[in-house]
Amino acid sequence: MPLVRNTSFFVGSSESVCLVGESGSGKTVTALAIMGLLPLSFRIKSGSILFDGIELARLDQNKLNRIRGRRLSMVFQEPMTALNPVFTIGSQIKEGIAAHERLTSKELNRRTLDILERVGMPDPQTAFNAYPHELSGGLRQRAMIAMALSCHPDMLIADEPTTALDVSLQAHILGLLSELRRGSGLALLFITHNLGVVAQVAERVIIVYAGKIVEEAGVFDLFDSPLHPYTKGLLESIPYFKDGSGGVDRERRLKSIPGNIPPLEAIPHGCPFQDRCGEVMDVCRRIEPTEVSTGRAHKVACHLYG
Ligand code: SF4
Predict the structure, then answer these.
(1) Mutate which of 279, 287, 299, 305 to test ligand 1's pocket (most atoms within 8 Å of Cβ)?
(2) Nearest residue to 119 via CA among 89, 82, 147, 81
(3) Measured in whole angstroms, how far is the alpha carbon of residue 185 from the centre of its chain?
């Protein structure tokens, strides 16, 4: 049973692209497929994952290991489960660097301290010697980012890296990622379900629903003129600030999207969003909409268009 299908997108050098959708929409599976980290029971049945011209989907494990962690890195949602609790932060970062580069012990220590400083660790030496449980949630996430950036990758996939953090730490981490991206030409694929986060980090946004891309547009275009009923529903469910007033628009009622994302075995024939869509038509129950371009690099998969 396909978890992700008809999914095609690219991320350019220095670009920040957000993959947005509810839990269960296939965002993390897409990221794990790119990284070659799918669980053993999953497989890529067809299609292609190109990284700088290299076909990742059919690359052997040795070649993939040389790219993964060096040119292509990932930050996971929950650092406590991604970091090894029995090794210090310093030794875990050094291990990642040593897997790809021949450096002396002194050089490894220097590089590790440098990267901890670069991600804004207040006391890099203490963090270097600390075990994961000795750091706060925000510092652990910084350590994860440091680990992911330690070999100066060309692309970083960040899977909901701020979900477990409070709002101020979230802002710190998002600012840090944007700064690092601008400073190093890093391509960023950011996975989130939070449109507030999207507004802060994205240049381009891809909306996914039930394992399929339903809309793709530049961030301003998407927020100004959403097309897909699902995207509209997501945007109508977040509070807006009144223009120039500095306050939340309290007269505007927040809406919710009725129902839930269908389980895999119950995705209906035709449009997967039909049971939750207020604009559903007969054709939606018969034919699955394909992606159409509406101009200005804005694409949508819905029978209301094209
Ligand atoms: Fe709604 Fe039909 Fe568009 Fe699906 S294709 S989002 S059901 S209008």
Answers:
(1) 279
(2) 147
(3) 17
Q: Ligand 1: list residues with CB < 6 Å.
A: 228-229, 271, 273-274, 277, 279-281, 284, 289, 302-304
pLDDT of residue 203: 94
Tokens of 82: 């991604």
Whole-prediction pTM value? 0.90
Q: What confidence tens digit (pLDDT) does each residue in 197-207 have?
A: 898 899 999 99
Q: Which two tokens stand for residue 8?
A: 């095609």
The number of residues in the chain equals 306
